[in-house]
Amino acid sequence: MLGLTRGRLAHISLASPLARTRALASVSSSSPINPTSVGPFQVFDRHAKQMQKDRSAAREGGARSRTVDYVRDEVADRLIERMQDIKRKFNTILDLGSGPGHFSKLLDSEITQKVVMVDSSENLLTRDADDEFDVQVERIQADEENLLQVIPQNSQEAIVSCLSLHWVNDLPGALVQIKEALQPDGVFLGALFGGDTLFELRTSLQLAEVEREGGISPHISPMTDSRDMSNLLGRAGFTLLTVDVDEVKVAYPSMWELLEDLQDMGESNAILNRRHFIHRDTLAAAGAIYKELHGQEDGTIPATFQVIYVIGWKPAPTQPQPLERGSAENRLKDALEH
């Protein structure tokens, strides 16, 4: 077990790592929503999410944001290992939803010459200087949901997304845009939070609201699971798919430190029509329930972050193709008997 200390205790398990927030305080939004428009079902307030990320990067000149990089840094480390398994050097890699560049900072000249970082938050995008990167850096402020508005089709050798796509309203559409932006035989690597992320916090808040207020409200966003990702990647047109799931576990002194870090990460609630406050006594009850149901022997509470890692390739004639059914020259039974 790896220990991190910031005046308060935070343990990150190497089998998995993660985060902290405050009363899941939501940011109000003035973003226009057209209820008569035809398009994907809107779950998240993208304008509110951009504001949350901007504010998290601006606190104390970015210092608060840097103290909570440990979750994304850990996931970026695991994602770069998957990139290194691809024995190919790229001229350029596009980092979609890059934030300050958790993944991009791990790239070196053995992997690529240049990285293009795309994020909706200008404050996060420009938080860290170019000299913290080992390759050439280009920054583009743009909404991850509208990739093809800033990136031409068939232009990218590789696209990576590290913990950004869980806030996208139209995930199938975003995957299609990623595939269209790739060159033939281009690769997409992604990491996104899965459905079991923060299940301890979710259940504790729900039980507390039922007990104190007689009902529940959504405070943690809905997320996908590994089976969904396999289907969505296939429907988007990717081939040679790889999907695997990992966990990151972090221990906190109490629920309050977890909430504080989540806010500093820019991971506060951004669901449309969300409640903009939680009663103090409800939060106190949730903290007590959290410790009672999930508390550990050393007095800390765990926070679980499920991470889904995906790899998909844009089809190309040069890629390996499966043999036709019935074309085998030897029987599997014969091979097993010998």
TrEMBL record:
This protein's GO CC annotations: mitochondrion
Name of the protein described by the UniProt record: Methyltransferase type 11 domain-containing protein
Pfam families: Methyltransf_23 (PF13489)
Annotated region described as Disordered, given as residue ranges: 319-338
Compositionally biased region (Basic and acidic residues): 326-338
Entry annotated with the keyword Transferase: yes
Keywords of this entry: Methyltransferase, Transferase
GO biological process: methylation; mitochondrial respiratory chain complex I assembly
Gene3D superfamilies associated with the record: Vaccinia Virus protein VP39
InterPro entries, alphabetized: Malonyl-ACP_OMT (IPR050602), SAM-dependent_MTases_sf (IPR029063)
SUPFAM superfamilies: S-adenosyl-L-methionine-dependent methyltransferases (SSF53335)
GO molecular function: methyltransferase activity
